[in-house]
Amino acid sequence: MKITRISVFHKDLELEHPYWLSGGRLRFSTLDATFVRIDTDAGLAGWGEGTPWGHTYVPAHGPGIRAGIETMARFVIGLDPRRVLEIERAMDLALPGHLYAKAPIDMACWDIAGQAADLPIADLMGGASRRPAPIASSVGAKTVDETREVLDRYRSRGYVVHSVKIGGDPERDIARIRDVEAHRPPGERILYDVNRAWTRQQAIRVMKATEDLGVMFEQPGETLDDIAAIRQLHAAPVSIDESLVTLQDAARIARDGLAEVFGIKLNRVGGLTRAARMRDIALAHGIDMFVMATGGTVLADAEALHLAATIPDHNLLGVWACQDMLTADIAPGRGPRNADGHLHLPEAPGLGLHPDDDAIGPPVAVYEM
Prior knowledge:
CATH class of the largest domain: Alpha Beta
Number of domains: 2
Shape: globular
Strand order of the largest sheet: 4-5-6-7-8-9-10-11
Number of strands: 13
Distance between the termini: 13 Å
Number of helices: 13
CATH superfamily of the largest domain: Enolase-like C-terminal domain
Structural class: alpha/beta
């Protein structure tokens, strides 16, 4: 089997509500999405998606995905998409770094490999749990009242896991955390996501002031060095996502005991092939996981769910899905959907879905043999 064509599509995805994070320093209302279709000489086609969370959040650029694919396409065409390691090496040779541009190609190749084997991707990767995965909301509000309103909106949809965005103002952060914890229903899991918005002294102030609550924080510093510097000064569990980009990052976090949780964002780390290695490092060191698409549609959510299904149930804390935050649906009625706050693994081969042609429009670029 050989790759014969790579088609690239672009679509702007409008958010249902404007989104704030890092104490309001980052605001988004539209996501720049890239979809990739890979065709083969065997008649199979696979789909991938790359949707960064805006252009200012982390080093990931929507137009850069399309430029990266243009650079890599001639190195990938003619290869067997089922040989994902060969595809990975070809992309690395063509374009060092730029993992976010490689993730959609990796995703589409896994989709083809699953279809060729007549297995869901999760089963092809070695075995999959059928236990529904709890969806983590993303609460990007700023004030106590706004936070309550957004949490109530997600609770009405069945969500029991929440990522509450904080950062930028320690006193406001403390007030919001205490209010959320005071109104938390039994059985809910809440992660307080700083998104790198604290300085070291701000992190210590908030984490010490809320120590009695036993809450968990995500990315409480800009870098791994910042997180390491305050590690011995607080007792809170830590999750790391934005500083978890490469396998070397994962190895350092595990070796130095910097976090109890990995937040694996598939587009950021380069796709399923690389994410699976991080999963194994986490499991080898007793580190739990959240699995997330960086942003995007049900297509990206399905990819995240397939990886999540290869993680033992007791090590998986949640799966973040963006689909409920969008006004558009590229695959109506297909793929994993919110069912009482959980996603159910598709049983169809590969990803288990594909987008509608009318929903994504004509390709903006086509590369062929």
